[in-house]
Design brief:
By secondary structure, the protein is of the alpha/beta class. The protein has 20 helices and 18 strands.
Amino acid sequence: QYFYFPQSSIKDSSSLATAMPHLAEAVMKRYKFINGTDAYYNNLFRAQLIAGEYEKAIASIEEYRKTDSRTNSLGPFAYLQYELFAKAALKKPQPFEQTFRQDFLRCFRMMNNKTAFNVGNIFRADPAAVAARMQAALAALPPGDSVSFKDALTLCRAYSALITYKQILPVSLPMLKEQDDKRYEFQDSFYIPVRDGAKIFAYVVLPREVDRPQPAALLFTPYPVIGMKEAQDAASHGYAGVVAFTRGSRSTNEVPVLFEKDADDTYDVIDWISKQSWSNGKVGMYGGSYSGFSQWAALKKIHPALKTVVPQASVVPGYDSPMENNVHSSVRSFERSYYVANTTPLPRDFFDNWYKSGKSFRSLDTLAGQPNPLFQRWLNHSDYDAYWRSLIPTNEEFAAINIPILTTTGYYDDDQTGALFYFRKQYTNNHGAHHYLVIGPYDHYGSQLMSSPNLKGYDLDPVADLNMHDLAFDWMDFIIKKKRAPALLLNGKIAYQPMGTNEWRNAPSLSKMSNDTLTFYLDKKANGKNYSLTSQKPAVQEIEQTVDFADRTTQNNYYASSFVSKELDASNGLAFM
């Protein structure tokens, strides 16, 4: 199916404003409901908004909420920005701003802090990003005065967001600030002194509804993109929200350092928290990736105020990041060390240009125009030596850990290797450890934040729909506030989701997650165009593989674009089947 859409609309905003309602009406006439397809009402309400059919759009939003419960955690407030836009537009000649403000305040008065924070995020869109999305949809159109059904839906989705946010942001943003100021006390941009005279940049947000000393949730991170919003998120869960940064991150006064000072610095930050008037002396740590490592660093010497940690998708420095199997990753090694001291991202083609240039890996900081001693120091430790091992607990320190821990990771998590390394290491040194694990079909993002119903081509079981971020706070509520334990962990220390079963299972240990193991050996025997995997150990064999490091014409991507494929990509490698 194709729809008329004049080329003049692509570059002229007035022509676009005329053409889009006509396109939306044409789409609605041909759009058919497909049973079980959640996207139907999602696309329909957007076309109805563009066409000015506001009552119908509101009804479609309500229908979509019924079908979209798996992928949207906002419940009855999902897509509220579009609903309030439609209601305000519907009540003309009453001024749009007046109606929108009344409905906005009415809805937010009904919400607790957590719901208000999550819903508030959908009213905080970046107008430049919304406009860029519209321009990208227009730029992708083929030549001519017609568009495909798929392109028409893409245009409707982008344009509905454009017209909605253009109207509501001037009204919603000031009201959100009013709401936030009523609900929270913000302590912005200050420094926490640590033992050697260095200063750690931090944010603190306190919920005003709590009028007594309260527990704190600490997120320790190197990433400058994280900030007040994350501290407010923790406060919305009922904690004093504290976000503290590694040395040099968000600070011009300290030399950027990753990994090396976290053990001492997290101890001193927790000590500072425990002495504040708003603190009840109990601190929990949470967060993923690098922040997961920071929690293990804090466990080298446990501060008495630290009651639990939730390391998610945790990095083991030198073991799985910034290198794995003694091979450095450009993203994990250089980019991570670069971003600690820089808020400006590297050009998108930076690594591609470096690779094609034939220059050494060690020259990356020179190419970026900024010497990076930390990056060079990492390169000087090219195996998992004492430098790296000193950054996490020793065997004796693992044995001494006496607080409850929840680890989360995923089958497709970049740092599953690290997360399970810590889990195994603690149980090896302390058989009675209070260490729990949740693992399922998640990537690095889903292992610490929210799952996706479709993970790179694979449709997850409905039961796998899990918000790991909320689980972290549920765990801290259980340990620190003595609330009920997360349901997933009532029947065993390990909760795992076997793909395709649509159920969670529990086990007391990693070995009990399966009833058998299979061992395969590499065999040079031909299997089609590839080699063989055999269950019998073959005689000693050699297979020659030549890698020309000077050849920069081909490369292998660390990340797979899809987990489901009809063919095995064996380029630049040897495949055994």
